[in-house]
Amino acid sequence: MVTDFFKVSNLFLYERKLDNFLLLQKSESPIQIYFLDVDGCKKVASENNWQANFTISINEILENTDVCAVAEFNQRLAHWTQISFGGAYVAEIDKKIRVDSKSAYLHGIYTEKDFRKMGIASAVMEKVSAYLLERGISRLYILVDSRNPSMLRVVAKAGFKRIGAIKLTKIGKLKLYRRKGKISDFLESK
Ligand SMILES: CC(C)(COP(=O)(O)OP(=O)(O)OC[C@H]1O[C@@H](n2cnc3c(N)ncnc32)[C@H](O)[C@@H]1OP(=O)(O)O)[C@@H](O)C(=O)NCCC(=O)NCCS
Question: Which domains does the chain have, with CATH numbers?
């Protein structure tokens, strides 16, 4: 379960500046990546029984989420990444960073077990970067568990740099807030 990971953990905060980002298009890729608003995410989650991956409800999962990037591999739902923007920040690290309207926070990243180690998370990371850059976002933030080598390598490969760490004893202490941003602007060309 994805949520088990966060019960007792040290989380590293990573940042990626997108200013010089170059998108590497993989034309023959069987991976299709879509960007959905919260209602779209709920629909996709219920149609694919995605809820079975989690111990909490889909409403809790999507709290503070603006957009989901979902990836299909051979027409099966394979990956899910949540994006918060419009002034998202993580409470515990608020003094270290304050994410402004040109920043986004990625969370809830999950590749279905059958589809791991195929490069899907990395491909989504690239598409998400391009999608956000087109919409005026120039920085991405992500928190990764220190005991998650696979994800640590995904973020390193994607060009994220470690800028801090926080200690958690349970998921309830991690609070993500956001100001209401111009969500319609972000979704208009989806
Ligand atoms: C972490 C997680 C999202 C990675 O997803 P993924 O789609 O498997 O990621 P990728 O395939 O892009 O990369 C993972 C590994 O596959 C390897 N890989 C990528 N393409 C590959 C290919 N074509 N053939 C073989 N291996 C490949 C990568 O090198 C990487 O290997 P490493 O872990 O030894 O460095 C996934 O394991 C997961 O959902 N874990 C549970 C939830 C979780 O921890 N989420 C992260 C919260 S921040």
Answer: 2-182 (3.40.630.30)
Question: How many angstroms does the Cα of residue 71 sit away from the middle of ligand 1?
Answer: 14
Helix (H) or strand (E) holding 69: strand 67-73
Q: 70 C-alpha to center of ligand 1: Å?
A: 15
Secondary structure (3-state) at 60 = helix
Pocket around ligand 1 at a 6 A CB cut-off: 2, 5, 109-111, 116-122, 144, 148, 150-151, 153-154
Among left, alpha and beta (phi > 0; psi -120 to 50; other), residue 119 is: left
The amino acid that residue 97 corresponds to is I
Q: Which atom of ligand 1 is nearest to the CA of 150?
A: 33
Q: Each residue's pLDDT tens digit in the chain (190 positions)?
A: 344 444 445 778 888 888 765 544 555 667 899 999 989 999 998 898 887 777 788 888 888 888 999 999 888 899 999 998 866 666 555 555 666 778 888 988 999 999 999 999 999 999 999 999 888 888 898 988 888 999 999 999 999 999 887 765 554 455 666 655 554 444 544 4
Give the closest residue to 176 by CA, choosing from 110, 55, 94, 56: 94
Task: Give me the phi and psi of 125, to 5 degrees please.
Answer: -55, -40
Going by CA atoms, what residue is nearest to atom 18 of ligand 1?
117
Task: Give the number of other CB atoms < 10 A from CB of residue 110.
Answer: 18
